[in-house]
Amino acid sequence: MALRIKYPHPVQRVYFFINKHDNYTMSPSFILAPMAELSHRALRELIESFGGADEYFTEMISAAALIDNGPFESWYLDGGPCPEKLVYQLVSGNANLLGKAVDILDKKECLGIDINMGCSAPLITRQGAGVRWMADIDKAGALIQNLRPRTRRRLSVKLRTGITDDFDYLVRFCRRLEDEGIELITLHPRTAKEKFKGRARWNYVGMLRKELRIPLYGNGDIASREEMLTRGDDCTGVMIGRLAVRRPWSFAEARGRAHGVSIQETGLRFLELLARYQPPEFHLSRARRFFSYFCDNLKWGTHVKNLLNREPGLSGIEKAWNQYFLEVKPDGQL
User: Fold this and answer.
1) Which range (7-21, 166-180, 227-241, 243-257) has the least confidence?
2) Which of 76, 122, 193, 214 has the least C-beta neighbours within 10 A?
């Protein structure tokens, strides 16, 4: 029997369907993906208010900027609200810099440290970072061999399938990292050139899991609660990114602990958290990034995105957001 929970908001309603017979004790871990300008404390606080994820990966932290104590590093290192569930993700193409950065992060309260070996953005790959580490098994293995004794924290890597689509190479690469002491691998099953094109090859996740002794998380194209649950058959943890921004309650929903949500109030809550936990220099870019996904919950989402993008600051965004809900009719029509 399904239980229908309804939030009586006059304008925008979100419904959750919870099956009383679902066995949630057997479900995998659910993890927030590392996303530039999104996986910061404000979003984590919002997600936690709905029940929370099992783990939170931070957005990429530049090893060089961390070592140089850049002006914004304290914001990137903010481990709230749950440091015990936080995983810091580092990016660099320089093994020495990564080692020094791991030394710094080891002193922070956290669950783990993750090395980005999957980002395919040109700005990152030109530095030999991100997915470029996957071009050389020996080089990547030597890096992990150097990093492993430098931290007491869980050490992990996030990968793509590789520079090219070669599953045998992927297995050899992962086994080498495993032999050097990596405790967890996250796979986004696309090649470097594919970026976000096409569909993520989730069959690779299930195949790779059978080849490894360590836990494997899967990431890519998770668009619903149902997919969060079914993809758990292929891995030990399901990592979600854009879905977690579009629906910050997704983790609670997948656990069967969801409740009614006001879209308007959630947007306002995010703006409040953003002002509290991010520096003013970040406010506008982070707000626009968040609402570019969150507005998908609205029937006239594109219209609202355009209105918000015209505003030069958080106060204007808040006013435009509230104005939409004042003007919209009860059936969601403008």
Assistant:
1) 7-21
2) 122
Say which amino acid occupies 119: C
Tokens, residue 11: 């304008």
Q: What is the pTM of this model?
A: 0.90
Q: Given a cut of 60, is residue 8 above it in pLDDT?
A: no
Retrieve residue 327's tokens. Answer: 């003007």
Tell me how far CA of residue 197 lies from CA of 167, 239, 279, in angstroms: 19, 18, 33
Contact 182, 155 (CB under 8 A): yes
pLDDT in tens, 216-262: 999 999 999 999 999 999 999 999 999 999 999 999 999 987 678 89
Burial pattern 156-195, b for ≥16 Cβ within 10 A else e, equals bbbbbbbbebebeebbebbbbbbebebebbbbbbbbbebe
The position carrying tokens 């997704």 is 250
Measured CA to CA in angstroms, residue 161 lies from 144, 167, 171 at distances of: 18, 7, 9
Contact 59, 36 (CB under 8 A): yes
